[in-house]
């Protein structure tokens, strides 16, 4: 420890890849890991002390004292603090921004890390009586009291979110004595029992026992279980063992809004404190969950990517569900992979980690091959469900009406006549991917992107899915004035209309990002589907993920051909995952399932391999191709991206970056090239790809020159970023 007053190395939220040194000044010496308020230029910023040092490289007359010590102890548990520093180093991302991304918003603003009391509202007898006498106009009061009646007389803070109310709106009812406001006790609610665990089948049983052995120590598992094999039940029973040992559990899921069922299953199973981190929370609720987990008051935290940064007092297990999902990689700012960091976190905290999927990523399969993860398999569907029958439907020369062949419609008809549900899958929302003029051939392009605009007929708008620009649908061609404009191609909206026409007596719902914008919308659709109020589901990949609809017996894949031919080396993996997942929605209960895939390329090796063998053999094949092509996971990649108003600036900048990286043995730089989609949101984009056979070499090559790169004059003319282990070629 340096003498009495050390110099503080502080992570300040700036775009620079460095920390800044400060003097302690009049404050008490902040601990490493505590937040401090510091002067920065003309601003005052909140930073985190990352080290105490004896001497600074900054001249002493330039060093300024901090303004305030905010925390009297380290904010983060030591493991998590170390993980963030490591991640800043590995992803070559500014350390201040790493903290800023990972901490709850209120802590970044300098709010004290103190739990605020939370309240719930209890319905009184008067309230119950008042409910039956409410007048017609008391719509809001009716909604509130009705909710309480349906939830054992309780309105919790989460309920308020769902009701889209703020606490002050309940005040009139508490004043009338219809509700009583009570403080939620902040004590750990210890785990006492689980409700109705299922009897595991032999494969599930083996998986749980293998993993149970590792509680209390680090071990990585890949739970590779076909769709509907009951992976969730395996997680639940393993989690129970961890809860019995009084440890905490972190569950990462791809998109929480899409999987309300999974969340409810957790809540029904365990009578302990379960926190859900989702986008609908207020900043205060988010902070409270964070603090409760840190203090051990919460037993299970379920959340998306960023939930990985929740502190725990005693973390006993990490589950990464659907580990192959691309949403685990953040695509802007701090571009981390939550799955990869989760493995490191588990190692640091001496906890087992389970990566679960029916379609594991090539990275995880490779880790199994290398002995870094233990492979556990569930080959059979749970209970009595059989794997679905898959039919590749050759549509060459066949007449298509709105993208649908008669053979496909006949197939659907058979299932619908038996009272079952069909899912029609198309990964493109909107009515049609473009709009064309019949007079001159003009196409509605986005002015700001190298892409067509998608027609959304319901809203009578053209919408660019890349930059979000929206304009009214033109009444006539802007080039030649011709009034006849016609949609080209197929989107979910158009498919929905076509299916309503083809099956006029059936109920069709469309599920995509547009139709589920309203809060609760997804939940309402799921309930309707489960209650058999829906016959045909049309939708995008939102429907492919994790859903369990017992009455769904047929899945139709309408247009997959575009995915079979792509320049991205990950396209085969992604398409195989998507097809396997969507096919896996069919026949999950006692009725057999059928999958029909329309294609113009029935001989395509991906389709042949995927359905004559299985995902497991296909993944080994994909891996040997990657190895032969010297591609990840056999090599590491980093992608420099840059953009500006003209292509010249990003190209100049990236050329200099390439020169700076020079001749590092083992490191190859490709480019710079214009990005696959060169123009986006009005910016011209270019990229430089770096590849190395050895892990870590990229960091070793870039780190020594990063501050030179940051200070290049050409860097000032562009917006640029580094993406380590990029997942997205654009
Ligand atoms: N041991 C069991 N006995 C009876 N039913 C089971 C058993 N295990 C799971 N199930 C049931 O099987 C169904 C499918 O399970 P689950 O949703 O967990 O599968 P999954 O592997 O997560 O599927 P996917 O990867 O396709 O989302 C659920 O309805 C679940 O309740
Ligand atoms: Zn655009």
TrEMBL record:
Top-level EC class: isomerase
Gene source species: Kangiella koreensis (strain DSM 16069 / JCM 12317 / KCTC 12182 / SW-125)
Subunit structure: Component of the replication restart primosome.
Residues engaged in binding Zn(2+) 1: 437, 440, 477, 480
Residues annotated as domain Helicase C-terminal: 403-626
Keywords: ATP-binding, DNA replication, DNA-binding, Helicase, Hydrolase, Isomerase, Metal-binding, Nucleotide-binding, Primosome, Zinc
The protein's name: Replication restart protein PriA
Listed InterPro entries: DEAD/DEAH_box_helicase_dom, Helicase_ATP-bd, Helicase_C-like, P-loop_NTPase, PriA, PriA_3primeBD, PriA_3primeBD_sf, PriA_C
Catalytic reaction list: ATP + H2O = ADP + phosphate + H(+); Couples ATP hydrolysis with the unwinding of duplex DNA by translocating in the 3'-5' direction
Keyword DNA-binding recorded: yes
Residues covered by the Helicase ATP-binding domain: 212-378
């Amino acid at each position: 420890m340096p003498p009495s007053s050390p110099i503080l190395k502080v992570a300040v939220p700036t775009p620079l890849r460095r920390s800044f040194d400060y003097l302690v000044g009049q404050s008490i010496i902040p601990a490493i890991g505590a937040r401090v308020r510091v002067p920065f230029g003309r601003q005052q910023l909140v930073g985190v002390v990352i080290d105490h040092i004896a001497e600074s490289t900054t001249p002493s007359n330039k060093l300024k004292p901090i303004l305030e010590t905010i925390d009297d102890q380290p904010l983060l548990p030591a493991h998590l603090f170390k993980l963030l520093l490591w991640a800043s180093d590995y992803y070559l991302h500014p350390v201040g921004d790493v903290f800023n991304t990972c901490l709850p918003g209120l802590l970044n603003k300098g709010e004290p890390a103190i739990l605020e009391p939370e309240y719930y509202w209890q319905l009184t007898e008067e309230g119950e009586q008042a409910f039956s006498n409410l007048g017609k106009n008391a719509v809001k009061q009716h909604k509130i009291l009705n909710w309480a009646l349906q939830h054992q007389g309780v309105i919790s803070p989460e309920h308020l979110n769902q009701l889209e109310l703020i606490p002050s709106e309940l005040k009139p009812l508490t004043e009338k004595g219809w509700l009583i406001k009570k403080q939620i006790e902040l004590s750990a609610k210890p785990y006492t029992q689980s409700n109705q665990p299922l009897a595991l089948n032999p494969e599930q049983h083996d998986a749980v026992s293998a993993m149970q052995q590792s509680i209390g120590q680090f071990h990585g598992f890949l739970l590779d279980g076909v769709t509907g094999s009951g992976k969730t039940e395996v997680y639940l029973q393993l989690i129970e063992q961890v809860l019995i040992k009084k440890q905490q559990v972190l569950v990462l899921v791809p998109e929480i809004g899409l999987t309300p069922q999974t969340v409810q299953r957790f809540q029904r199973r365990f009578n302990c404190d379960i926190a859900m981190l989702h986008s609908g929370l207020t900043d205060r609720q988010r902070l409270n969950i964070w603090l409760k987990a840190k203090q051990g008051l919460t037993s299970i935290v379920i959340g998306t990517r960023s939930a990985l940064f929740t502190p725990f007092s005693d973390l006993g297990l990490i589950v990464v569900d659907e580990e192959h999902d691309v949403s685990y990689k953040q695509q802007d700012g701090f571009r981390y992979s939550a799955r990869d960091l989760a493995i490191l976190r588990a190692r640091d905290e001496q906890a087992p980690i389970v990566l679960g999927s029916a379609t594991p990523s090539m990275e995880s399969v490779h880790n199994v091959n290398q002995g870094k993860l233990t492979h556990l398999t569930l080959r059979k569907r749970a209970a009595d469900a059989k794997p679905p029958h898959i039919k590749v439907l050759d549509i060459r020369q066949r007449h298509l009406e709105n993208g649908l062949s008669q053979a496909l419609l006949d197939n659907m008809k058979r299932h619908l006549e038996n009272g079952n549900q069909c899912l029609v899958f198309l990964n493109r929302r909107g009515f049609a991917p473009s709009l064309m003029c019949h007079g001159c051939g003009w196409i509605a392009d986005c002015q700001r992107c190298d892409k067509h605009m998608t027609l959304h007929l319901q809203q009578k708008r053209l919408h660019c899915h890349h930059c979000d620009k929206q304009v009214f649908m033109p009444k006539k061609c802007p080039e030649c004035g011709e009034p006849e404009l016609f949609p080209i191609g197929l989107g979910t909206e158009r498919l929905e209309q076509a299916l309503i026409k083809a099956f006029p007596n059936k109920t069709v719902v469309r599920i995509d990002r547009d139709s589920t914008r309203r809060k609760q919308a997804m939940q309402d659709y799921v309930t309707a589907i489960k209650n058999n109020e829906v016959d045909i589901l049309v939708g995008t990949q939102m429907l492919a993920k994790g859903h369990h609809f017992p009455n769904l017996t047929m899945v139709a894949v309408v247009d997959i051909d575009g995915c079979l031919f792509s320049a991205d080396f990950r396209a085969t993996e992604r398409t195989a995952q998507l097809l396997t997942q969507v096919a896996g929605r069919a026949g999950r209960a006692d009725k057999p399932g059928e999958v029909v895939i329309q294609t113009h390329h029935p001989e395509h090796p991906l389709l042949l391999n995927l359905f004559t063998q299985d995902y497991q053999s296909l993944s080994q094949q994909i891996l040997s191709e990657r190895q032969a092509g010297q591609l990840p996971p056999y090599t590491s990649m980093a992608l420099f991206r840059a953009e500006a108003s003209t292509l010249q600036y990003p190209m100049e900048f990236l050329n200099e970056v390439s020169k700076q990286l020079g001749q590092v043995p083992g490191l190859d730089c490709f480019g710079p090239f214009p990005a696959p989609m060169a123009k986006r949101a009005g910016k011209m984009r270019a990229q430089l790809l770096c590849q190395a056979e050895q892990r870590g070499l990229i960091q070793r090559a870039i780190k020594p020159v990063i501050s030179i790169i940051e200070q290049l004059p050409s860097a000032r003319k562009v917006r640029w970023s580094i993406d380590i282990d990029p997942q997205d070629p654009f």
